[in-house]
Amino acid sequence: xxxxxxxxxxxxxxxxxxxxxxxxxxxxxxxxxxxxxxxxxxxxxxxxxxxxxxxxxxxxxxxxxxxxxxxxxxxxxxxxxxxxxxxxxxxxxxxxxxxxxxxxxxxxxxxxxxxxxxxxxxxxxxxxxxxxxxxxxxxxxxxxxxxxxxxxxxxxxxxxxxxxxxxxxxxxxxxxxxxxxxxxxxxxxxxxxxxxxxxxxxxxxxxxxxxxxxxxxxxxxxxxxxxxxxxxxxxxxxxxxxxxxxxxxxxxxxxxxxxxxxxxxxxxxxxxxxxxxxxxxxxxxxxxxxxx
Length: 292
Description:
This protein is of the alpha+beta class and about 290 residues long. About 35% of the residues lie in helices and about 20% in strands. The chain has helices at about 10-50, 170, 210-245, 275-290, and strands spanning about 60, 75-90, 95-105, 110-120, 135-145, 185, 255, 265. A five-stranded mixed beta barrel has the order 2-3-4-6-5. The radius of gyration is 39 Å and the shape is elongated. Residues about 255-275 and about 290 have low confidence and may be disordered. This is SURF1-like protein. Pfam families: SURF1. It comes from Streptomyces gottesmaniae.
């Protein structure tokens, strides 16, 4: 009964199924691995910014350039404080305030943005404490340059002089004359009574929309694999039922082609009177020809 599986039509169906199922399983497994990688990045990034699990502070030069592996690490650097800026509309524990950002000029001749702390309310230069004078050594969490519109960074324009919307070399280059590091640090302990700004995990390391998209795609590919198997069994069952109906004579009337290519329906000889009625029909069609 299953010899039809060796026909060319079923060979094509079987080859398609044998290729489609491994492909769907492979793609689903790959999407699942992407989700697991994001989970691992999230755990590692969380550990790096957790004070209880942090590694000892290292010199800034050993942690640059900032990437997913070094973002959140403790960095130490020495220099002298220079120009001070404010970063408005920043939230800490659900309250809106502003960062106090001071540039630290290092011995390498470059300036590192240092967030010395956070104050509640509207950004006001008169409220921002002055930076310590002389040579200082600071320790804080290394952070990647910010991009407006991501990681909670607001998109702002037309700010007053002495304020910046994002902490990055691309933004600050138009505000200060210094050669800047494309990174910044936030002090673990707020300076001059200010509140310390918590470190944040780098972009694309959290349970964001992309992570859940990977998880959703995983489910979709496995569903596709199951659907291919389901359709193969359904076609197989339909073919078997068709063969059984043919063997039992339960199929509907068949159409036999005439000599001119058109089809005329004839009942089977097993139907009572079927053969006689067909013969009578052919005889009536032939009578006009005999009369002529």
